[in-house]
Amino acid sequence: MTKLKLNDGNRLPRLGLGVWQIPAETTARTVAGAISRGYRLIDGAAIYGNERGLGDGVRDADIARDQIFVTTKIWNDNQGFDKTLAAFDESEARLGLSPDLVLVHWPCPTKGRFLDTWRALIRLRDEGRVRSIGVSNFLPDHLERIIGETGVTPVVNQIELHPHLQQAELRALHDRLGIVTQSWTPLGGGRAFADPVIAAIATRCGKSPAQVILRWHVELGCSVIPRSSRAAGQAENIDIFDFTLTAEEMTAMATLDKGKRIGPDPTVFC
Ligand SMILES: NC(=O)c1ccc[n+]([C@@H]2O[C@H](COP(=O)([O-])OP(=O)(O)OC[C@H]3O[C@@H](n4cnc5c(N)ncnc54)[C@H](OP(=O)(O)O)[C@@H]3O)[C@@H](O)[C@H]2O)c1
Questions:
Q1: Cα(263)–Cα(257) distance, rounded to whole angstroms?
Q2: What pTM was computed for the model?
Q3: Are 72 and 44 spatial neighbours (Cβ–Cβ below 8 Å)?
Q4: How much distance in Å is there from the Cα of 152 to the middle of ligand 1?
Q5: Which of 3.40.30.10, 3.20.20.100, 3.40.1280.10, 3.40.50.300 would CATH assign to domain 3-254?
Q6: Segment 214-263, tens digit of pLDDT
Q7: Is 48 a catalytic residue?
Q8: Spatial contact of 133 and 154, defined as CB atoms under 8 Å apart
Q9: Least buried of 83, 204, 211, 247, by fewest C-beta within 10 Å?
Q10: Running DSSP on this structure, what letter comes out for residue 151?
Q11: What 3-state DSSP class applies to 32?
Q12: How close is the Cα of 151 to the center of ligand 1, in Å?
């Protein structure tokens, strides 16, 4: 699997395992299993309640730590400069390792603290506590504010992105700013699995609808973090690097956009 180059020079695997809703008591086994199947990126967050298991899974895997990319996120309640620094310490202690990437989980514009939160991440990066810093669920005005005020561009904006919410304008802005788009809920709750456009591509390629959708994310230039707690699901989801979609198929996929979110609206969620 090739990696995406981040604007700070570090490299991010194109595909990883998301661990939202993986029970804390099984996370270590799930993560170690995924790593044994070739996953090199694990996407976690403090709010998922399973950072301890994530760290244990990375340690249990028979792979050098520097071969695995670990992400965590600062939860909304911990926004603000000092609280973010303390929240990072707590995440690091639970993980038992230094994450490679830390994200501001949501902008929470009504709180008005995302700029201070971002400044805290810059401090952590400058102190060498974390290699890369980024954001999640940020809209254009939030990105412009933090970049304008600090001169530091996030390496990643992790956003809801799937066939029914294609985010073309935000992706184009990311491209202009040098930000990697990372897709969350990339399978879109399976809502597009039976779509005839996806079914036809799946038949041509001899792949499943889920694999076609994940490959589509990669073709868009995104990093993608599907979750599966099943060994077979993990193996299926990473097996997308031996086929491509044609230009016509990418055009057909673009027609599936409904601009419809499954998750919360970043303008109000906090
Ligand atoms: N930054 C944010 O605000 C944010 C928000 C939401 C999610 N995320 C991140 O994004 C990750 C992925 O999003 P997600 O967990 O919401 O959804 P997802 O990865 O799009 O879908 C997960 C669901 O699809 C099923 N599934 C996985 N692979 C499948 C396959 N090949 N065929 C059929 N079904 C399959 C899984 O069930 P099985 O386990 O049974 O396979 C699970 O129910 C999260 O885990 C989290 O790390 C971030």
A1: 16
A2: 0.98
A3: yes
A4: 30
A5: 3.20.20.100
A6: 999 999 999 999 999 999 999 999 999 999 999 999 999 999 999 999 99
A7: yes
A8: yes
A9: 247
A10: S
A11: helix
A12: 33
